[in-house]
């Protein structure tokens, strides 16, 4: 064992390496057995200074590495053992003091705390201090050095130091320590001036000031134990608190400032309480001392201390009365103004809080003397960033008061890149405070978003994005109003910027915007016809974002407003391109973009799939209107998503209005979608044929029209026509009428695909039907026969022409009417074939006779004959005019007919038959049959007329 060694130094050095063992059990064994064994060496001459110094270093080094409870207790036991040995006392105590003095320079909390404990043991267990005044001074000064450090540490260490406070000052001052028991106010001391001088004599004024400053601060500690101990000691050693505070004020403020900037929230809280108590109790007496110290603190190179100054200013101003602060405004305002432009963000943040406190007392004076300086600093490149952050800080605490003073300076047009950036940064801080300033901020940002400088554009865009997202529910109406003004602006760039912000707002805002969505959707759809193509693209994207922000169950309620908006947009485009309302379809530019229908399609599809019957009807009609204004190229990718649901819905049991609307839309889709509908051809054909049997005329008519359009895409026409011909055997005239209408459309659109067998079958059945008793059946059959003529053989053509000319002289009106309808249809659809036929003259004779038809009261035969004659004249003017002598007299008589429809038809017929629009020569030639007045009047009629044929 180490104790067997004859030399204590050698023994101690032998066990020194073992002290560093990670085994706590082994360390404790060394300190409790081996080291005490060495201390029991009978020969005191061997206890050299070298031995003592080595022992102290070994103890201190051990606790620097291992600070567990067992090791601490074992080390304390060794120290007590050493101090209890008279032979060892002086050397060990001296070495301990030297270690305290040496290690106090390292500012280590744990080390300082351990040294305090050992010094307490030194005072308690030894007579060292009483033997020498110099020794006592050294111990106490060492304690004071480390005490100041420890008192700024965690509460655990501060509580543990309460005994040290008491022992230190009672030893130095020679007091009893009973001040607390004798009562009195918190600041009423039981000390004397002599005791105070004794403390200064032992510690020195600087050390005494440091300790008293720490002591005063912990009088407001979060721990009641620490507070009581500190107050006890203060009352014990301080005779005159105001006087003492005045003496220690620079050191106290230095301590408070450092603590206020500490990373420890507990330490900041203690310092804040202490400063507040200082001002509250001794305001008028200490403010003249505190304020200048704080103001000078801003020149400290340490940013943490500058931050502490700002926090201290806040505490002082929050505690002091308004009347007290008014005296110091000339110092407070410049100080805070300087701090707001500090290079360190944390300092500026604390300065902002100080400004808020200052504003409570100074009011508008604080704004008038600080804000203009910061705004001026914005114009300097070197100070602009810090000044901007300073504005952000004061804005974050006093938004409503400061904002009106800042915005006019920043929104001055043209907006600079920095001002745009500043607006965004300030908006982020101002938040809902911008609600009442949107009319000032947004117009400037919207204009800057279209600036020629890309940097300005980007910064303005970011700022505007920030603005629209920081407003709350109360500012929504104002924001929407400003954005709507923007989309109606004369400048395309502002319309474009406003559209973008609408989309950004609805996509990213956390507000409930469903109530605002309808107005935005309607506005953006109208904007899809904007003259500026870039604006159209942005409006389309914004529309997509707005619609996507709405819950899908709400979408069907927007169907009507979308239909109205599409109609308005279409009319706007029509006026822009100067297209008449009957001049054909108009495409909306926004629906010619890629993915054109993506924004609005969900609205209609949701209504079609899940809405009421009325809503489904509106959805189907709206889809048709949408398809009409969409380009064929853009429509391609939406053909299947639209057509599929339409086919599914029409197959269910819905009212006829729904079916009619769907059929109408499918007809439009067939016309615009073309070959993209190929996957649906069988389903569509089956659906349309089935609808021909519907009980409602509108459904049957729509289905017939759609089936005719569809046949142009089909490759199997013969079976379809065969089915239709079979359906003509139905007894229901209404169904037969619908089938004939469908058959007309099929032959018109796909007749060239029919086989000769089917053509003959159609021809045969029509020969009888054209003389039907039913007007509509007769008219439809005659129309089909006229279209079919181009697909007949020459012999069949002659047969047809002979049949209708012979029937024209029948005594039965329906027969005469049917034949003249057939002739009219042939001339309207295939005039060249009729004119080239050997029977053409017979046709003219037939028409001449029919123009004089007076076998009954109806004038319909005469009117139809005139229309047929007009068709011939328009189709073959040169070949027809040679027959003028044949029909001229009869035509002249028709101009005098008692029936208004006949006279109107006669005028149109005369215009083309006599070719009156070609000049005076033709007008004069016509006067052989009609009066000059009639000829000149008729020659002025328009070439084309809307008069029913």
Automatic annotation (TrEMBL):
<dbReference type="Pfam" id="PF13513">
    <property type="entry name" value="HEAT_EZ"/>
</dbReference>
<dbReference type="Pfam" id="PF25786">
    <property type="entry name" value="HEAT_GCN1_C"/>
</dbReference>
<feature type="domain" description="Stalled ribosome sensor GCN1-like HEAT repeats region">
    <location>
        <begin position="402"/>
        <end position="595"/>
    </location>
</feature>
<feature type="repeat" description="HEAT">
    <location>
        <begin position="332"/>
        <end position="369"/>
    </location>
</feature>
<dbReference type="InterPro" id="IPR021133">
    <property type="entry name" value="HEAT_type_2"/>
</dbReference>
<protein>
    <submittedName>
        <fullName>Protein ILITYHIA</fullName>
    </submittedName>
</protein>
<dbReference type="InterPro" id="IPR057546">
    <property type="entry name" value="HEAT_GCN1"/>
</dbReference>
<feature type="domain" description="Stalled ribosome sensor GCN1-like HEAT repeats region">
    <location>
        <begin position="242"/>
        <end position="383"/>
    </location>
</feature>
<dbReference type="InterPro" id="IPR011989">
    <property type="entry name" value="ARM-like"/>
</dbReference>
<dbReference type="GO" id="GO:0005829">
    <property type="term" value="C:cytosol"/>
</dbReference>
<dbReference type="InterPro" id="IPR016024">
    <property type="entry name" value="ARM-type_fold"/>
</dbReference>
<dbReference type="GO" id="GO:0019887">
    <property type="term" value="F:protein kinase regulator activity"/>
</dbReference>
<dbReference type="GO" id="GO:0006417">
    <property type="term" value="P:regulation of translation"/>
</dbReference>
<dbReference type="GO" id="GO:0034198">
    <property type="term" value="P:cellular response to amino acid starvation"/>
</dbReference>
<dbReference type="Pfam" id="PF23271">
    <property type="entry name" value="HEAT_GCN1"/>
</dbReference>
<keyword id="KW-0677">Repeat</keyword>
């Amino acid at each position: 064992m180490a104790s067997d060694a004859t030399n204590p130094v050698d023994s101690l050095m032998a066990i020194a390496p073992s002290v560093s063992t990670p085994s706590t059990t082994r360390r404790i064994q060394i300190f409790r057995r081996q080291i005490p064994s060495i201390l029991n060496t009978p020969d005191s001459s061997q206890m050299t200074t070298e031995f003592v110094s080595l022992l102290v270093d070994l103890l201190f080094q051990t606790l620097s590495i291992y600070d567990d409870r067992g090791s601490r207790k074992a080390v304390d036991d060794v120290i007590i053992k050493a101090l209890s040995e008279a032979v060892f006392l002086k050397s060990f105590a001296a070495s301990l003091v030297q270690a305290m003095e040496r290690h106090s320079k390292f500012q280590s909390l744990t080390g300082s705390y351990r040294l305090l404990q050992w010094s307490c043991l030194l005072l308690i267990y030894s007579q060292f201090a009483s033997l020498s005044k110099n020794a006592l001074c050294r111990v106490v000064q060492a304690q004071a050095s480390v005490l100041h450090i420890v008192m700024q540490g965690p509460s655990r260490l501060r509580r543990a130091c309460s005994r040290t406070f008491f022992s230190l000052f009672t030893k130095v001052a020679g007091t009893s320590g009973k001040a607390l028991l004798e009562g009195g106010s918190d600041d009423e001391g039981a000390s004397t001036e002599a005791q105070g001088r004794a403390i200064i004599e032992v510690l020195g004024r600087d050390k005494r000031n440091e300790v008293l400053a720490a002591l005063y601060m912990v009088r407001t500690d979060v721990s009641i134990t620490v507070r009581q101990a500190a107050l006890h000691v203060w009352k014990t050693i301080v005779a005159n608190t105001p006087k003492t505070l005045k003496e220690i004020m620079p050191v106290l403020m230095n301590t408070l400032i450092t603590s206020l900037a500490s990373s420890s929230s507990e330490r900041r809280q203690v310092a804040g309480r202490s400063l507040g108590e200082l001002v509250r109790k001794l305001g008028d007496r200490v403010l003249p001392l505190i304020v200048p110290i704080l103001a000078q603190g801003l020149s400290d190179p340490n940013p943490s201390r500058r931050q502490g100054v700002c926090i201290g200013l806040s505490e002082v101003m929050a505690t002091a009365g308004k009347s007290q602060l008014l005296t110091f405004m000339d110092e407070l305002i410049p100080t805070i103004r300087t701090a707001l432009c500090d290079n360190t963000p944390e300092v500026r943040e604390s300065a902002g809080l100080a400004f808020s406190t200052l504003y409570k007392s100074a009011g508008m004076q604080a704004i008038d003397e600080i804000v203009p300086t910061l705004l001026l600093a914005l114009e300097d490149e070197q100070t602009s960033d810090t000044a901007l952050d300073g504005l952000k800080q004061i804005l974050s605490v006093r938004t409503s008061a400061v904002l009106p003073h800042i915005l006019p300076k920043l929104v001055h047009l043209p907006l600079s890149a920095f001002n745009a950036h500043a607006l965004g940064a300030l908006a982020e801080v101002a938040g809902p405070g911008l609600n009442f300033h949107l009319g000032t901020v947004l117009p400037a940002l919207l204009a800057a978003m279209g600036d020629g400088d890309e940097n300005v554009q980007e910064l303005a865009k970011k700022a505007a994005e920030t603005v629209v997202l920081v407003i709350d529910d109360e500012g929504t109406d104002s924001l929407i109003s400003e954005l709507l003004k923007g989309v109606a602006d004369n400048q395309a760039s502002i319309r474009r910027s406003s559209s973008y912000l609408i989309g950004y707002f609805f996509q990213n805002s956390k507000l409930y915007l469903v109530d605002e969505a309808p107005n935005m959707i309607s506005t953006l759809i109208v904007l899809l016809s904007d003259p500026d193509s870039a604006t159209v693209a942005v409006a389309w994207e914004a529309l997509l974002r707005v619609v996507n922000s709405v819950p899908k169950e709400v979408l069907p309620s927007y169907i009507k407003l979308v239909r109205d908006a599409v109609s308005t947009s279409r009319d706007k485009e029509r006026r822009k391109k100067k297209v008449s309302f009957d001049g054909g379809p108009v495409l909306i530019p926004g629906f010619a973009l890629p993915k054109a229908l993506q924004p609005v399609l969900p609205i209609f599809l949701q209504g079609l799939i899940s809405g009421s019957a009325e809503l489904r009807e509106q959805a189907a009609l709206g889809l048709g209107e949408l398809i009409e204004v969409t380009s064929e190229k853009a429509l391609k990718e939406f053909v299947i998503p639209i057509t599929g649901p339409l086919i599914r819905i029409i197959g269910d049991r819905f009212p006829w209005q729904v079916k009619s609307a769907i059929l109408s839309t499918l007809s439009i889709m067939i016309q615009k979608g073309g070959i993209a509908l190929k996957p649906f051809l069988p389903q569509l054909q089956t659906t349309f044929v089935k609808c021909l049997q519907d009980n409602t005329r509108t459904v049957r008519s729509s289905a017939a029209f759609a089936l005719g359009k569809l046949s142009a895409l089909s490759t199997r026409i013969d079976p379809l026509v065969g089915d239709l011909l079979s359906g003509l055997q139905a007894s229901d005239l209404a169904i037969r009428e619908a089938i004939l209408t469908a058959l007309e459309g099929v032959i018109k659109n796909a007749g060239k695909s029919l086989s000769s067998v089917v053509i003959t079958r159609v021809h045969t059945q029509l020969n009888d039907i054209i003389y039907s008793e039913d007007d509509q059946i007769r008219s439809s059959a005659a129309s089909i026969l006229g279209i079919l003529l181009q697909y007949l053989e020459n012999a069949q053509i002659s047969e047809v022409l002979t049949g209708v000319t012979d029937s024209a002289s029948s005594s039965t009106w329906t027969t005469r009417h049917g034949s003249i309808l057939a002739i009219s249809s042939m001339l309207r659809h295939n005039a060249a074939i009729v004119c080239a036929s050997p029977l053409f003259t017979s046709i003219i004779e037939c028409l001449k006779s029919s123009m004089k038809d007076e076998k009954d009261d109806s004038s319909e035969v005469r009117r139809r004959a005139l229309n047929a004659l007009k068709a011939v004249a328009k189709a073959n003017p040169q070949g027809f005019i040679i027959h003028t002598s044949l029909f001229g007299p009869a035509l002249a008589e028709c101009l005098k007919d008692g029936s208004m429809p006949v006279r109107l038809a006669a005028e149109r017929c005369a215009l083309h038959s006599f070719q009156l629009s070609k000049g005076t020569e033709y007008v004069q030639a016509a006067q052989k049959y009609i009066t000059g007045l009639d000829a000149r009047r008729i020659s002025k009629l328009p070439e084309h007329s809307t008069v029913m044929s």
